[in-house]
UniProtKB/TrEMBL annotation, chains A, B:
Domain Creatinase N-terminal, first and last residues per copy: 16-160
Alphabetized CDD domains for the sequence: APP_MetAP
Protein name: Aminopeptidase P family protein
Domain Peptidase M24 as annotated: residue spans: 168-367
Gene3D superfamilies: Creatinase/methionine aminopeptidase superfamily, Creatinase/prolidase N-terminal domain
Top-level taxon of origin: Bacteria
InterPro entries with a match to the protein in the record: Creatin/AminoP/Spt16_N (IPR029149), Creatinase/aminopeptidase-like (IPR036005), Creatinase_N (IPR000587), Pept_M24 (IPR000994), Pept_M24_MAP (IPR001714), Peptidase_M24B (IPR050659)
Statement: the UniProt record of this protein carries the keyword Hydrolase: yes
Pfam families xref list: Creatinase_N, Peptidase_M24
GO molecular function: aminopeptidase activity
Length: 388, 388
């Protein structure tokens, strides 16, 4: 990142704002009210880890025309002023008597006529990052202005990545590739799982990640039970399958892929499961096209697994990726989202080896006109073996 | 962390649940509905970085008597089952047709009579981590049951830490102390600020942090402009004051303190500012007592700064600390929260050196009957100097 805080030239944010405004116009929203770290970063370039503190709400209002207005705690004024936003209204937060309610309401009344409608993302995979009580107060103050769901406005714009965004995701994928290369050395150097997790995060930072927002994994004899737990202090043993998964961040963009390793010679079952996962991913890499739906990606992946006589995992088998660790759509049987050129996605097939024992394989791609282009370096076809 | 996922023995969570239930009874809540990472970890011990994915909501319902009920995506079943919770209801999330709305509504109707009231935290420093549209659907389905603000229920219980919690925060503070000791070597080895940030995070992991949820800082000639920005690639120069601040995590508990360093010989102004900050912190360490209010802490800190002829920073001068990077109360003029024995707090005086140039100093304490006990190792009275 350069001296300023903008990840991209201002033109990128102007383009995004205009794309949102076109969606807003098509859906009858006179303004968009954004509260989440991801949406605010997307529109303004405001990048900070300070969201980790739940103390203060942050707001950006996108009017039907012109540049967004930031309504933020004064502690963020300097950083926001280095973004492309010039209309910045601040208050001293946290304020137990009025934590931005008055200021935000005034801005909404300023940019939206009394008969107008304010869009707020309130659908699947969203949440309103402000106190619910204050939301009710704002809604009351801005009446008779209506509030409507603007999830589609955000989703249809954010889900298609620009070339500049794809380059950023490719960068962080390459950083994770380099860190995964270190895993055999890390494991041989000290095989307690919690130590492996720490050293893997250090390897990500050493390779150039700005920070590591997510590391998870699993380890168990011939497979693992779950993929979201923190690491136990127990040592890895011969026969374990180790999986490491990461959402590392560079310039505000995430990677999200995993790698599996066999500690010592793998069982035939484990080797076969890895082979099935590899082939399922190959099928998706060959067949996925713009115009298909998210449920088609699920069908391709689970179908390829079943064709090999294995049992697909029950959860989603891939998802969007970008300014958060996971974005819509979800590769499930129920998600009808149309896959579009420029979407960055994960392919994440899972197989069930036995009750409570699974294996998961993940790659990151961008969907091109003629199919997926890999952003992560393709995993090896053979399950890698680490001899302790 | 051990083989299971419980940070503490089950008794700790039983005690917390009973304390919440006593507050609920006193305030007329027949159940508590929790959606945030912090509240759910606090009640159940469910610790995962998977919250980084915005895809799925998670719910825990605390009834007026007995153990909490988890209403969660099936991907979390294994991990939750290793906690002390036995009543776990799951659905396959994300589900675009019903993402837990039906299941959550049924549980609330099961444990709360039709004339009853469900408490949800909706005040300062809270947010509801679920889609706003789904919240409205749940509210409709559970009618005529009422929903009321339960911020006080959560705040009055979570803000007083048990001995076991204080031990955890002391552990992560010691880890950060060890990492801050490495900063002179890190800076001399390569003084680009973004590299310093990465190396500092690696030092935190090497010292035993499970992960590093927050690193921020600043660097500038004789002081810095803001304290929430990510690092630029620019090299540190003689005359810069470097500040590093971290919220590292061990076993789900945060530290939050910073350290200042002078690159080369500091200016008299910078040396003097550090001295003022040190003295202000000494004043708070000497004078703070249970029974005072948060605004009294602000008065002590800002008064000590003004008594030295310096200008206190405009923001809050300290706050709570625990299972999130920052917790209530806030040391401002407006926060009337009573300080209680067992609260873990940050003392964070700031001085303004010139427009856009500040210095901030931070320590972590637990408030005892006879005053503060330091959890971070006290910063040196003299501003440390790093010669490049």
């Amino acid at each position: 990142m350069g001296e300023g805080s903008l990840v991209f030239p201002a033109g990128e944010y102007v383009r995004r704002t205009r794309a949102l405004q076109a969606e807003m116009a098509a859906r009858g929203n006179d303004a968009l009210m954004l509260t989440s770290q991801a949406d605010i970063f997307y529109v303004t370039g405001f990048l900070t880890r300070f969201w980790e503190s739940p103390a203060r709400p942050w707001f950006v209002v996108v009017p039907s025309r012109g540049a967004p207005i930031a309504v933020i705690p004064s502690i963020g004024q300097d950083l926001m002023a280095r973004c492309w936003i010039s209309d910045i209204r601040t208050w001293d937060a946290p304020d137990p008597f009025d934590d931005g309610v008055g200021l935000l309401s005034e801005v909404l009344k300023e940019v939206v006529p009394a008969t107008g409608c304010i869009g707020i993302p309130m659908g699947l995979e969203t949440s309103l990052r402000m106190p619910l009580g204050d939301y009710a107060r704002v809604a009351e103050r801005i009446a008779p202005r209506r509030i409507a769901d603007a999830t589609e406005v955000i989703h249809r714009v954010r889900e298609v990545k620009s070339g500049a965004e794809i380059d950023r995701i490719r960068d962080i994928c390459a950083i994770a590739d380099a860190a995964f290369d270190k895993v055999p050395d890390i494991v041989r150097d000290g095989p307690a799982l919690d130590r492996v997790f720490r050293q893997f995060q250090m390897a990500l930072l050493a390779a150039g990640a700005d920070w590591v927002s997510y590391t998870a994994g699993g380890a168990g004899q011939g497979g693992y039970g779950d993929v979201i737990s923190p690491a136990a202090a127990a040592p890895l043993r011969a026969g374990d399958i180790l999986m490491l998964d990461t959402g590392a961040v560079r310039d505000g963009y995430f990677c999200d892929f995993d790698r599996n390793f066999s500690i010592g010679t793998p069982s035939d079952d484990a080797r076969r499961a890895h082979d099935v996962l590899f082939k399922a991913t190959e099928a998706a890499l060959a067949q996925l096209r713009p115009g298909m739906r998210a449920c088609d990606a699920h069908r391709i992946l689970s179908g390829a697994i079943a064709a090999e006589g294995a049992i697909p995992g029950g959860g989603r088998l891939g998802h969007g990726l970008g300014v958060t660790l996971t974005e819509w759509p979800s590769f499930t049987t129920k998600d009808l989202t149309v896959l579009r050129e420029g979407m960055v996605l994960t392919l994440e097939p899972a197989v069930v080896l036995a009750p409570g024992r699974i294996m998961v394989h993940e790659e990151n791609i961008v969907l091109r006109e003629d199919g997926p282009e890999l952003l992560s370096r393709r995993a090896s076809a053979e399950l890698p073996v680490i001899e302790l």
